[in-house]
Amino acid sequence: QVQLVESGGGLVQAGGSLRLSCKVSGRIVVFHTMGWYRQAPGKQRELVAAIASGGNTNYEDSVKDRFTISRDNAKNTMYLQMNSLKPEDTAVYYCNTLSLTGIWTWGQGTQVTVSS
Q1: Is residue 12 within 8 Å of residue 4, measured between CB atoms?
Q2: Which residues contact 103 (CB under 8 A, 6 or more apart)?
Q3: Which of 40, 85, 87, 99 gets the most CB atoms within 10 Å of its CB?
């Protein structure tokens, strides 16, 4: 069984930066995809960024050129570097993995609040 623990959220002013981390523990496997999602109050959870097992990445349009997803396999950790943050980036951010057998796993979430 895989466990995911996010960290790095907090309160930042618009234009600032944060780096989120997602530590993977438990039964470490090669994942089909790892990703970051976010959910703002009253809105559906949406994909922010994803990284495939081969290293290909994709981003939600509003975060392109501002956010960067990466992973450190040696540390079993995935990151989301967020720059030029905007108030509309305020949300709970969740990390997620999709295994090769189709099992989804979610972290507990970390709050990101961007003040104007």
Answers
A1: no
A2: 2
A3: 85
Place of tokens 């981003």: 59
CA distance 74 to 51: 16
Nearest Cα neighbor of 40 from 108, 115, 96, 93 is 93
DSSP string, 33-83: EEEEEEE-TTS--EEEEEEETTS-EEE-GGGTTTEEEEEEGGGTEEEEEE-
pLDDT digit string, tens, across residues 21-61? 999 988 777 788 999 999 999 999 999 999 998 899 999 99
